[in-house]
UniProtKB/TrEMBL annotation:
<dbReference type="InterPro" id="IPR009025">
    <property type="entry name" value="RBP11-like_dimer"/>
</dbReference>
<keyword id="KW-0808">Transferase</keyword>
<dbReference type="GO" id="GO:0000428">
    <property type="term" value="C:DNA-directed RNA polymerase complex"/>
</dbReference>
<protein>
    <recommendedName>
        <fullName>DNA-directed RNA polymerase subunit Rpo11</fullName>
        <ecNumber>2.7.7.6</ecNumber>
    </recommendedName>
</protein>
<dbReference type="InterPro" id="IPR036603">
    <property type="entry name" value="RBP11-like"/>
</dbReference>
<dbReference type="Pfam" id="PF13656">
    <property type="entry name" value="RNA_pol_L_2"/>
</dbReference>
<comment type="subunit">
    <text>Part of the RNA polymerase complex.</text>
</comment>
<keyword id="KW-0240">DNA-directed RNA polymerase</keyword>
<keyword id="KW-0804">Transcription</keyword>
<dbReference type="GO" id="GO:0005737">
    <property type="term" value="C:cytoplasm"/>
</dbReference>
<dbReference type="GO" id="GO:0006351">
    <property type="term" value="P:DNA-templated transcription"/>
</dbReference>
<comment type="function">
    <text>DNA-dependent RNA polymerase (RNAP) catalyzes the transcription of DNA into RNA using the four ribonucleoside triphosphates as substrates.</text>
</comment>
<feature type="domain" description="DNA-directed RNA polymerase RBP11-like dimerisation">
    <location>
        <begin position="13"/>
        <end position="84"/>
    </location>
</feature>
<keyword id="KW-0963">Cytoplasm</keyword>
<dbReference type="GO" id="GO:0046983">
    <property type="term" value="F:protein dimerization activity"/>
</dbReference>
<dbReference type="InterPro" id="IPR022905">
    <property type="entry name" value="Rpo11-like"/>
</dbReference>
<keyword id="KW-0548">Nucleotidyltransferase</keyword>
């Protein structure tokens, strides 16, 4: 997957996720929103075959930056998938 940073500031980020669709990005947004320091997390796919654009903003005074939050959310998704695979092996 390729990411393209469109906008990056201390408390917000806007990126595109090349080649991804609703399934992965929707799950990522849900994980991001689970972080109490996140103010807004949403995505848009402007056209049927365009890459999704992810937008994340942090609450005022947040100690975390949006890149850290996205990384943590992605790692939570990986951990959950690993746990599911482990259960299916038994």
């Amino acid at each position: 997957m390729k990411l393209k940073i469109i906008e990056l500031e201390k408390d917000k980020i806007r990126i595109t996720l090349e080649g991804e669709g609703h399934t992965m990005v929707n799950a990522l947004v849900d994980e991001i929103l689970a972080d109490p320091e996140v103010d807004v997390a949403k995505y848009v796919i402007k056209y049927q075959f365009s890459d999704p654009e992810l937008f994340v903003t942090m609450k005022p005074g947040s100690a975390k930056d949006p890149i850290t939050v996205i990384r943590e959310a992605a790692q939570h998704m990986v951990d959950r998938c690993d746990a599911l695979l482990a259960c299916l092996k038994n």
